[in-house]
Amino acid sequence: MDTLQRLKDLAVSESGFVFDPHSGQTFSLNETGRAILEALKRGETVEQIVTDLRQGFEVEPGADLGRDVHEFLLLAREQGWPVPQVEAP
Amino acid sequence: MTGKPTYQRPMLVRHQAGLMNKLSRVAGMRPLTEIDGVPVAALVERFGSPLFVFSERSIVSRHRELRDALSVRLPKARLAWSYKTNYLDAVCKVMHREGSLAEVVSEMELDKALRQVAGTEIIFNGPYKPEGALEKAFRAGARVHLDHFDELARAEAVARRLGLAPKVALRINMSLPGITPWSRFGFNLESGQALDAVRRLRAGGVLQLAGLHAHVGTFVQDVDAYRQEARKLSELANLLAREHGVMVEWIDLGGGFASNNTLHAQYLPGEQVTPSFAQYAEAIAEGLAALALPPGREPTIFLETGRALVDEAGSLVTTVHATKRLTDGRRALILDAGVNSLFTAFWYRHDVVPAQPFAGTPEPTILYGPLCMAIDVVRDQLLFPPLSPGDRIVVRNVGAYNVTQWMQFITDRPAVVLVSRTGEAALMRRRESVETLLAQEEVPAWLA
């Protein structure tokens, strides 16, 4: 099964509750995390995800969204999510 | 207002099913923005970070709670403030103002106590009392508790030289089921050593045996230990009256009451398992019921409670210096205070809360101090909300032992502040600086 399909299989509720049908595990995401997962399901790149976040959220000056997204993807991989490999920002 | 949600750093937390989560209880976590009405942010702005903050209100209220719990059961009970727990002058002054004696275990502490109270209001414990310290204590009329035979002989020599016949106590150690015996302090009861000490002391003809003392342990959560300790000392006091003609005037049951902190090896949080003062007092009263001395000759009962009186009063305010993600997925916060200031991090899973309102999903977090040392861990596992550099954290219940056992290692010791019952904040100890360090140093002439 390809990576994108496995990502799409992750069931996400509006409140950020995630069920992984392949492992049976459940997770919680905050609103930002949920936005990233939805973007990953659409096959977006890190750059596109950062742009989405800037458009969709009120971001304080100085926030390093690239670093945050990269860190989130590393964490998702640690949890066994089929997240595409990304280079450090 | 744009109507957009506020950006928070993205968070992902895996759910872990199982038994009760012993790491922390995030659902109940509330920010601690004020200490006795004084904003934490204002304290840091005025006194810097990290910062120890003590609540006078808490010290006084705990002291009165224990005193009241004892006095309804034991009219002749008195508290003796354990200097080693926290010997800042201001803290000792609060304790003495509330009626505590001073309990000291070194000549330095004796010197400190003599600046605050009369010698007769001092109990001098510990295994190391050099001649000079004994002389000072006897001249001041302090109650000296003898720890071993060499000390007994030394005390006799000092008293004889001074032409005094001071009243002293013997420290007794004993075997109590479920409690690790502290045989290194005092004379053993079960082996007969304690009675040997009584005979030896009386044969010397210089010192007057007037008290018995024992200390069953530290952070003792089983009140039965005190019931048994009190019963055994009572029976010894009865025996001394019956067979040796010695009527003890005081019995010192030591300290060791647990505070609301949670030991690393403890499953349930301290506030759920730590006995109340009333439970400790009840057990002690039951044990002392074995006393059978003539009416009017009931001994004064001393308690040397330290930790349980002052731990809750102390907080350490610290600032997040940086955040990082560890390879195992945990969030790590690097704080400006570490184990050099917070010695008790080695003992407890400290209660840690943000000092400002927070939002976001809590995640597994580890709190590191600023030291370049692997051991510098303030909390090694807790569910904690996402914080950013500059945010403040309050480590609660740190009033006991930290400002006496802290280390001057790599960084300066932080300032210590007291918040009064009327909400006034003032320094009890200034923050150290490199000048503090250099003031003690000398460079040999050949290197100058």
| Alpha carbon gap, first and last residue of chain A | 28 Å
How many domains is the backbone of chain A divided into? Answer: 1
The main sheet of chain A orders its strands as 1-2-3
Structural class of chain A: mainly alpha
Kindly identify the CATH topology of the largest domain in chain B: TIM Barrel
Instruction: State Rg of chain B.
Output: 25 Å
Q: What would a concise description of this structure say?
A:
The complex is a heterodimer of chains A (89) and B (448). With 89 residues, chain A is mostly helical.
Record the SSE blueprint.
The complex is a heterodimer of chains A (89) and B (448).
Chain A: H1 3-9, E1 11-12, E2 17-19, E3 26-29, H2 31-41, H3 46-56, H4 65-78
Antiparallel strand pairs in A: 1-2, 2-3
Helix pairs in contact in A: 2-3, 3-4
Chain B: E1 12-14, E2 34-35, E3 38-39, H1 40-47, E4 51-55, H2 56-71, E5 77-82, H3 89-97, E6 101-104, H4 107-114, E7 122-124, H5 131-140, E8 143-146, H6 149-162, E9 167-173, E10 187-188, H7 193-204, E11 208-214, H8 224-243, E12 250-252, H9 270-273, H10 277-288, E13 300-303, H11 307-310, E14 314-325, E15 331-335, E16 352-354, E17 363-368, E18 377-384, E19 392-396, H12 402-405, E20 415-419, E21 425-429, H13 434-438
Parallel strand pairs in B: 4-20, 5-6, 5-13, 6-7, 7-8, 8-9, 9-10, 9-11, 11-12, 12-13, 15-17
Antiparallel strand pairs in B: 2-3, 4-14, 14-15, 14-19, 16-19, 17-18, 20-21
Helix pairs in contact in B: 2-10, 5-6, 8-10
